[in-house]
Amino acid sequence: MHDDPDIEANAIGLTALKRSGVGWWRVLDARTTWWSPSMFDIFGLDPALGVPKPQEIFHRYHPDDTNIVARSWPKMFSSDEPFRMRYRIIRPTGECRHVVNWAQRQPPDEAGQRWVVGMVTDITDQVDDAALFDAERAFRFVAEHTSDMVVRTGLKSGITYASPASRAVLGYSPAEMVGMAPSDLVPRDHVVRIRSLLQDRIRRQELISPEGYEYQARHKDGRLVWLEANPRLVLNGAGELTEIVDVVRDIGARKETEAALRAAQAEAEAASQAKSEFLANMSHELRTPLTSILGFSRLIGASGDLSASDRGYLDLIRSAGETLLTVVNDILDFSKLEAGALTLDLAPFSAAALAEGATALLRGQAEAKGLVLTCETLCDGVAGDARLVGDVTRLRQVLLNLLSNAVKFTEKGSVRLILSIETDDEGTAVLSASVADTGLGLAPDQIEQMFERFTQADGSVSRRFGGTGLGLAISRRLMEIMGGEIGARSDGKTGSTFWFRAAFPFASAGMTAMTEADEGDLDRPLRILLAEDNAANRTLIKALLSSFDVSLDMVENGEEAVAAAAARPYDLILMDMQMPVMDGPTASRAIRASGRAGHDTPIVALTANVLPEQIRQCRDAGMQGHVAKPVDPRALMAALVEHARPCTVATEAADAA
Description:
By secondary structure, the chain is of the alpha+beta class. It contains 23 helices and 23 strands. The termini are far apart.
């Protein structure tokens, strides 16, 4: 007995702890560790071998619990808070024991060192065996009744467990799979890829990943099957991979579906490409002769030397050509809209000029039928000459479609266009247009279908008046792209009114001034090179430019264009795209890359290729502009004004030489 009761109490407490099997330990660093004798008993280790190093201890933890211990150890050495951990250890005999570990960092000792002191208690006998049995049974039930294969693989021991689904997935029984290595089942290239993925996850300490991976494995019958896995990595306290727990799914059916989808997509893309090529060829082949038909009919009509009957015949030719061109344009526009390839070209425009210009284009047709065509512009608090920002070409297309339909389907009476501009609460211009006629009218149930593709009021309409039935469908899609709306109203007896409405920002003063500065006629002599293989088109372009101060040189293919551009300076090159020997884009790239005189001469495509990807091809080849065939003289003149650059000094030097 001690005289000091505190010392006696401590002695009794230590004796009780020793007899209870509690193990004591303390750690300063990886090289300085102390264990009480009971620690060796708990871990089943021989004291004669000395205290194991921390890395050796980590190998004694149960694989499923190493992550808990690995995360807790660093915290013990960085915090003064007490820690409590419950985990399992595996003795050298393979016996699993449940333990609780209490630990806390101590204040600095006389040498300034801070030890972590802990106590380990073996609680295996207190663990509820029934609970463990139920948990194990639940795991086995899930593993044995799921169609996915559950696999546990030790890094050194190979597969240690496989669920019964292994028979359906790979053809092997669970017993056959135990002891196999992954490389026995998986082709080498997939093994290398999977190892790389797992190593990346280990470096990131990503034990569970939101993303799995796909790989192939060899079935027992020799065929390769597609599998999907997202393994859970089990690391020991040293951060080393010890086991992989995986749920593997057969994705063969999904792969077949994906392959079928890819094949269908490739087939659809091939069909779409074939359609695009057909449209491009059809457009080119129709536009090329239309260039001559419309171009020369305009030139002959402007001569003034025709009799009344001859002028009538000429008008019929021109009208037929313009109708065919409208059909071609409608088909191409609808194809662009369906493919989502149509973009808006935004620029300042005058709403009043838009209305007046569209009305002027159709006034001759209206008067020929004895119709009165009127145009009225209403500006509510907005200046009559106000400019808006939008795609005026597409707006004109919609407006002309409504006006031409009204003129076409009205036998007598009038067609009236009312265009109005209002300002909304945000200061944006709201442009509204309505076209009212005294024609056949529409039944209310026909109005909506009129905006569907290839649709007209009835079958007899197309026979009487012609047309593709695409105009209103295109107009609706165009208005949707502009953020507007379009519709119609009619009682079926007293004509129809078609309308559209869209919002546009007002053009700034700077934008308006810049646009106006770009407009105008040629103000100086020009030397132009035309590369065109079609003799009729060469004659037409020469005739169109004959009334201007233009010196025109002509070649028949791209190779000759490259040579001509290097031989003398030009203000502008008009380049066809499809030519023999060398096409237009190839010639343009050659001119740009030559580095010779004239390599930077502006080039404008003059072509029947008008699809968006074809125009993009022109731009990519180094061309600055694009004029479509059939050639609109106004579009040609606008291209000359915009793109032709002075080469007067170089021209005079070349002439002098």
